[in-house]
Amino acid sequence: MIAENAFSEDGNARFGIELLWRAGKYANTDEQDTVTAECVRKAVSSIVPAMRRSDLENLNLHEKLFLLGLSRIFKQNQNSSVTLAQAEQAYAIVCEEFNTSPVSHTQLWKYLRALSGVGILKAEVMATGTRGRSTNVSLPRIPAFELEKELYKLLANKRM
């Protein structure tokens, strides 16, 4: 994950080293034995602010719900990516929580592409054997707990 982030910054080795150092500091602060994906997200966001609150405010309801579901997945486990199917399941649970019907798979794919285009998410299509493809989704630059907190505030304001 650190190498991918360094590569995205034009292969800047100094950025990669700084990222590794900061992620290690976050792991030490959290008293963890290993550097987790969440530590890397914290480090990236401390070096390169990924987004402003206004960026989240401008998203539509279902984009916010989709991001909320993803932030919960990444907060619960320390994987650096999940499949689109797992993301859809988390999104469906969040939709149920907010009493709204989920959008179709095609519309969710469009949201994923848009969110990937602005750098909030990263989507990578992988070939799976002889049949089909799978899409892996990652949250490369924003700590999951911060994203969840901000989205929940925005969505709670809409509920009232």
Q: In this structure, how is the largest beta sheet organized?
A: 3 strands, antiparallel
CATH topology title of the largest domain: Arc Repressor Mutant, subunit A
Q: Which structural class is indicated by helix and strand composition?
A: mainly alpha
Q: What is the architecture of the largest domain at the second tier of CATH? A: Orthogonal Bundle
> What best-fitting shape do the alpha-carbon axes yield?
globular
What gyration radius follows from the Cα positions, in whole Å? 16 Å
Q: Indicate the low-confidence ranges by residue numbers.
A: none
Total of DSSP H or I helical runs spanning 4+ residues: 8
Order of helices and strands: HHHHHEHHEEH
Number of strands: 3
**Count of folded domains:** 2
User: What average pLDDT do the residues reach?
Assistant: 85
What name goes with the CATH superfamily of the largest domain? Winged helix-like DNA-binding domain superfamily/Winged helix DNA-binding domain
The helical percent reads 55-70%
Strand content: 5-15%
Provide a short characterization of the protein structure:
With 160 residues, the protein is mainly α. The chain has eight helices and three strands. The protein has two domains: 2-47, no CATH class; 53-159, Winged helix-like DNA-binding domain superfamily/Winged helix DNA-binding domain (Arc Repressor Mutant, subunit A, Orthogonal Bundle).
